Please model this.
Amino acid sequence: MLLLGHLVPLAFEAGHRPKILRRGGKVTSITLRSGIAFRDITKMLAPSTNLRKFGRLFGLEQEKAHFPFKMLDSVRVLRDVTSLPPFGDPSWQSELSGGAALTLQDVAAAHELFDRAGCLNLGDYLASYLWLDVEILYKATQAWRKTLAQLIGLDFVQVKKFTISSLSYTAGLKTWESRLRIGTFAVNNSQHYRLLRRGMRG
Model:
């Protein structure tokens, strides 16, 4: 929604003529005339994989932070609130954070990030929180690309396949072509077969 509400109008004003692809009510990609594309990485992951799990999957040093979303009842609080609430404060519980109860360690890590980033108010912390999200997303995505390249010999950016179904189909074609000979029609590579099976629909 942030990209749709802010990036798209700016892109139109700059003459980039963004093309928006939707599936149902969700935006799956935003492509600019210059060739830059914004895509939803969750289409490449298991349905229950969120950013926190995605980072942990590849053992990243960075850990997704927590934010007291219930405090955001106006823009003014971003400037006026100069510290994070303590552990146990209801501000830490929100549907935006998945509704899971935060531990003392979770809240302590948030306070540590606030201090380490030199935050003066909640707005500064929000910027640090979002920057950390971007860093985790970038590093985990690069690790995911490298892992897939090692397992099946495909880079989803280079082959321009941005869903698990389209990538599994391409991997299947690659295997079939490399092993094509008379009387051989089955995928006999375990990694390719597993990717194909997970990508099946219907």
User: Anything to note?
Assistant: DSSP finds seven helices and three strands in the chain. The first helix runs from residue 2 to 13. Residues 1-39 form one domain. The chain has three domains: 1-39, 51-137, 154-202.
